[in-house]
Amino acid sequence: MTIEDLPEPSLEGDSLIERERFLFPNSETSVTFSVAAAPMPSDCEFSFFDPNDAACQEILFNPETSVSELFAILRQWVPQVQQNIDIIGNEIIKRGCNVNDRDGLTDMTLLHYTCKSGAHGIGDVETAVKFATQLIDLGADSSLRSRWTNMNALHYAAYFDVPELISVILKNAKPKDVDATCSDFDFGTALHIAAFNLCTGAVKCLLEHGANPAFRNDKGQIPADVVPDPVDMPLEMADAAASAKEIKQILLDAVPLSCDISKAMIPNYDHVTGKAMLLSLGLKLGDRVVIAGQKVGTLRFCGTTEFASGQWAGIELDEPEGKNNGSVGKVQYFKCAPKCGIFAPLSKISKASDLKKSSVRSSSMRSSPLVKSKKIDVSHITSKVNSGDAFWQHFE
User: Fold this and answer.
1) With 200 labelled, which of 55, 211, 327, 356 sits at a CA distance of 20 to 30 A?
2) Contacts for 250 with CB less than 8 Å, ≥ 6 apart
3) How many CA atoms lie within 13 A of 117 on its CB side?
4) Could you report the per-residue pLDDT of 178-192, keeping only the tens digit for each?
5) Ranges for the CAP-Gly domain (predicted)?
C-alpha cells in the first residue's frame, strides 16, 4: 500500500503533520511513501543536505517538509547525513509515521537505513546503535526486507561490517533469524554476505551469535567457499588478501568436524620453497621483472607470507606506484622506498626481457587482432564508503 492509496481525512485545514497523524496514528499497517527529491536551500553552495547548516535545519524542522522528502535526504551517502540518522529519523517519526514505513524508491525502512548508516568511515556507529535500539523499542521489525535487494536489517549490518548493530538486531530476534537467507546472494546467509565482502568484524560477531558456518547456499557453498581468493585480487590489494586469509581460516575453524569442507580448504603450497619456484620460472632475486605486463621493477623477495597462502613475489618498482615499503601487516619481507613495494602471485610476473621479445613478436604480427584479457571481477571488495553509493545506483 502506498501513501496515495490511503483515504483523504475528513478534517479540513490540517497541517501536514496532523494529516499524517490522522491517516496512521500508531497504525500497525505500514505504508510506502511516494518518491520525492531531497529539498535544498535556494542559496545552497553545496550539493548535499547538511543538518548542521542553519538553512538546512530550517527545512528539516519545518512541518511542511514531507516524509518523502526526509527519506530522500536519508538516501544521500555523505557523512553529514549519515552521522545524523537519528535527527532525520526522528523527524520522520514525529510526523506520525509507523516505524516500519518504507521509502518508495529503495523500499527500505528506517531500521534498514540505520544499519547502513553505521558504516565505518562515513557514519557514526554509536549514533546508529542508539537509534536502532530506539526503533526496535518502538516496534521496528528486523525481519522486513527491501523488495529490491531482498535484504533485511541483519543483512545490511553484515554487508556494511557493523558488528555493533548485528548484536543489537540479534538480541531482539529469534534464534533462527541469524541464518535468514538472501536471494541476491544465492540464498546465502548474513555470514555468506560478510565473508564475500571481507567483513572481518561481522564474521566474528555472527559466529559468536550462533551463525551456522556449514550452511550451504543455492550453489552448495558454505561461507568459507565464498571468501575471495587472494590470488585473484589486483596487485594493490595486499591488505585485502590478508583479510581474506584470516576470514577463511576463522570460518574453516568454526565448521563442525563432521562437515565435508574439502572444497573450501585453503590451497597450501608452503612446502614448495621460493627458490624452487623461481628456478621453475627461470627467475632469480635481483632480476628485472614485469607485473601483469604493466609495472616494471626488481624482484626482491619470493616465498611464503603471513597475509596469504602460497608463494608470493615482492617487487621494488622503478616508480612509486606501489602500496608499501616491502612490508605488509608489520612484517618486513624486503626493504625499499615508501610506495615502491608491491606483492604479486608468481603467476603474474615475468622477466622484463620476455616482455620485450613478446612486444617484438606482437608488432610483427599485425594481422592478428589484439585480445584484451578479461579482468577478474572483485569490484564488490571495496570501502564501505564507496559501497553506499553503489547501493543508490540501483534506484536512481
Assistant:
1) 327
2) 200, 203, 204, 207
3) 31
4) 999 999 999 999 999
5) 303-345
